[in-house]
Amino acid sequence: MTLLRTSLDPTAPDHQANRDAMLAKLADLETEHAKALAGGGEKYVARHRKRGKLLARERIELLLDPDTPFLELSPLAAWGSEYTVGASLVTGIGVVEGTECLITANDATVRGGASNPWSLKKALRANEIARANRLPVISLVESGGADLPSQKEIFIPGGAIFRDLTRLSAEGIPTVAVVFGNSTAGGAYIPGMSDHVIMVKDRAKVFLGGPPLVKMATGEESDDESLGGAEMHARTSGLADHFAVDERDAIRQARRVVARLNHRKAYADPDFAEPPEYDPEELLGIVPGDLRTPFDPREVIARLVDASDFDEFKPLYGTSLVTGWAGLHGYPVGILANARGVLFSEESQKAAQFIQLANQRDIPLLFLHNTTGYMVGKEYEQGGIVKHGSMMINAVSNSTVPHLSVLMGASYGAGHYGMCGRAYDPRFLFAWPSAKSAVMGPQQLAGVLSIVARQSALAKGQPYDEEGDAALRAMVEGQIESESLPMFLSGRLYDDGVIDPRDTRTVLGMCLSAIHTAPYEGARGGFGVFRM
């Protein structure tokens, strides 16, 4: 065993300062998560309960196996927008009758569960995760369909929701819809395209057009129950496979459906793995408040991997990038972690070789981000940084083993791409509250704009406005700083959630377990041309 040694002193002033800064960020994060948990607010939650209905997360809790965790995804969706944090939808991964499932639940306390543009993005991301990892999908439905004022942003791309359901089914990935209330207009196609449908008596309403629309379109008089009630669909239309007397009965029946799916994981669960040798509480003090200060990612790795056992690859070469092999909850992983921020040619070539090795061995890759990007300057351009950085991005792009990414600190520029950012389809991507991501750091970006403006004025023979320059720089720095923060990015679904560093091992373990539901194989060839 190659035990990682730690030089971390939890009592040191720097560690304490980093910890305090992280705890402050976690407190801010908790405040924003509370907004998602509050749904539509006290008034609408009380109205929902008065109708004898369970809240979305209560339905999920009853659906899950007792004492099993739920990995909620994208809880901050719509943060910073005009819509409620959480986007009126709860999504995540949990275990039902011993089977890992992707679960979605409409939050009917937020505009009746109607879908807005961020709900759509969140639902599509959930379907993407289900398909990549072959997770059965359980939809807990109570929605009036599209939020009509935003229909221009929902209608055309929203058809992908129904397309995804049919594709999941075609690939043998089970889909289950449990209808607790409205599932109308386009929303009627959620149960319509699911493999198994359960509807709640006197509650479920599934129709393409409600009584008012039918009256306008055909002149026919009708009521909700005869048009789309649970009993009608169970006895007459046949849309409902199971008729539930109440919500709890519907959830019980959903669990029985999952128990009979015969859906098997591609890989057996690993044996018990030894926990890390070091206290995960210490993760709070590793990342500096000022991301320009480097930190050793081995201190993070030592508190994530099984038994703190890590076999480093090329430790003396390309030392700004740490690479090596470990286990995480019993699953083998290859880890790439930024050590000093900047990626040089040596780090890029080292990464490309390591990624190819992981593909030869069918080992998933974990990327731990803290990078300012690839090195610039005459010496490095002449040394081939463009082709070497491209080599690393080529390897990441064409690697076919599952990728996981965690943004710990900075994740700027093309370094974000080379470390498998969102555009490179990691199976899961999470951020710590300390993370920042943008085209470059705020000061650098503002400085570049200042230099360009100054050169433009000089070329025209005009005097340069120093006061205006200072104001411009301050404005740009403030804008880029706010747009690079994890809550801003998570609100736009550029990650799958902002997590407490202490939970990282558990979150990654749940992700690795989900990943191993589907078979995968590394690329033995198939990489693009590596420029030499």
Plain-language structure description:
- The protein has 532 residues and is an alpha/beta fold.
- The protein folds into 3 domains: 236 residues, 2-enoyl-CoA Hydratase, Chain A, domain 1, CATH 3.90.226; 192 residues, Alpha-Beta Complex (2-enoyl-CoA Hydratase, Chain A, domain 1); 42 residues, no CATH class.
- It has 19 helices and 17 strands.
- The two termini are 36 Å apart.
Topology:
Blueprint: H1 13-38, H2 42-50, H3 56-63, E1 70-73, E2 89-96, E3 99-106, H4 117-133, E4 137-143, H5 151-170, E5 175-184, H6 189-192, E6 196-200, E7 205-207, H7 211-218, H8 224-228, H9 230-237, E8 242-244, H10 247-259, H11 298-301, E9 310-313, E10 321-328, E11 331-338, E12 342-343, H12 345-361, E13 365-371, E14 373-374, H13 378-382, H14 385-398, E15 403-412, H15 413-418, E16 428-431, E17 436-438, H16 442-459, H17 466-483, H18 486-491, H19 504-515
Parallel strand pairs: 3-4, 4-5, 5-6, 5-7, 6-8, 11-13, 12-14, 13-15, 15-16, 15-17
Antiparallel strand pairs: 1-2, 2-3, 9-10, 10-11
Q: Give the beta-strand count.
A: 17
Per DSSP, the total helix count is 19
Low-pLDDT windows of residues: none
| Approximate shape | globular
The amount of helix comes to 40-55%
Please identify, by name, the CATH architecture of the largest domain.
Answer: Alpha-Beta Complex
Give the class-level CATH name of the largest domain. Answer: Alpha Beta
Q: Report how far apart the termini are.
A: 36 Å
- CATH H-level name of the largest domain... which superfamily? 2-enoyl-CoA Hydratase, Chain A, domain 1
Give the domain tally.
3
Mean pLDDT: 93
Main sheet summary? 8 strands, mixed
Portion of residues in beta strands equals: 15-25%
Please state the CA-atom Rg, rounded to the nearest Å: 25 Å
* Structural class by helix and strand composition: alpha/beta
CATH domain fold name of the largest domain: 2-enoyl-CoA Hydratase, Chain A, domain 1
InterPro entries: AcCoA_carboxyl_beta, ClpP/crotonase-like_dom_sf, COA_CT_C, COA_CT_N, MCCB/AccD1-like
Domain CoA carboxyltransferase N-terminal: 22-273
Pfam families: Carboxyl_trans
Domain CoA carboxyltransferase C-terminal: 275-517
